[in-house]
Amino acid sequence: ETGVTQTPRHLVMGMTNKKSLKCEQHLGHNAMYWYKQSAKKPLELMFVYSLEERVENNSVPSRFSPECPNSSHLFLHLHTLQPEDSALYLCASSQEGLAGDTQYFGPGTRLTVL
Amino acid sequence: AQSVAQPEDQVNVAEGNPLTVKCTYSVSGNPYLFWYVQYPNRGLQFLLKYITGDNLVKGSYGFEAEFNKSQTSFHLKKPSALVSDSALYFCAVRVLISSGSARQLTFGSGTQLTVLP
User: Fold this and answer.
1) For A26-43, what is each residue's pLDDT tens digit?
2) Residue A85 — φ and ψ, nearest 5°?
């Protein structure tokens, strides 16, 4: 999966830790997304960046802080998380402006909060 | 509000038989519809999409989907299932985010497909 990469693939952290998730897209896209996938629940869109500007924030708690330094990189900074934040975090990218543009996903980071 | 429903949590089918994974949607305006597949411990892989034109869309790995506007459905099909098709399948519909140019995908809850040898 060279199109969209995510690191780390697995992360275990305590509630007082600070960590960051990284996403990189190699597709030349101009929009990037963070999703949360929890068991038995639909994918939840967390943040959207279009042309490096945040255009959507779906009422995500402030303990999640995104950063998009350029069109190829997206970070999700985590601090003082709760056990219910344990989930698979997926990054995606797309080329905005094309009719029916497709989002391409990374492999995800499996996060466990103890 | 826009939404997509996958009425079956689980679909079982014998190898070699045809398979169908159901999806219905509700949107204002013309929908963009997508199917994705997720294998264990992997991200979502794009299978196919409907934008406009021919109601029968062909995608990766021999999958196809039929857009039915009157029934607001976009069912995923394959004429002959393989054991390797066993995975979690997601239907998604495109909605427009009012605050910007980016467009949001709304996903169904997923259908676990198991193909039995």
Assistant:
1) 999 999 999 999 987 889
2) -85, -5
Burial degree of B109 (CB within 10 A; 0-12, 13-18, 19+): middle
| Cα-Cα end-to-end distance for chain B | 41
Contact A108 B42 (CB under 8 A): yes
Which secondary structure element, helix H or strand E, spans residue A44, and what is its range? strand A44-50
More confident residue, B30 or A28: A28
Query: Do A102 and B49 make contact, defined as CB atoms within 8 angstroms?
Result: yes
Q: Which residue among A40, A49, A108 sits closest to B43, beta carbon to beta carbon?
A: A108
Residue burial B93-105, b: 16+ Cβ < 10 Å; e: rest: bbbeeeebebbbb
Query: Can you tell me whether residue A42 is helix, strand or coil?
Result: coil
Alpha-carbon torsion, ordered A27, A30, A22, B96, to 10 deg = -120
Handedness of CA B49, B50, B52, B55 (dihedral sign): positive
Q: Which of A6, A41, A96 sits opposite B102 (nearest CB)?
A: A96
Identify all chain B residues contacting A50, using CB atoms and an 8 Å cutoff. 100-102
Q: Are A50 and A31 in contact (CB under 8 A)?
A: yes
A1 has pLDDT over 60: no
- Residue among A43, A58, A104 with most chain B CBs within 10 A, to mutate: A43
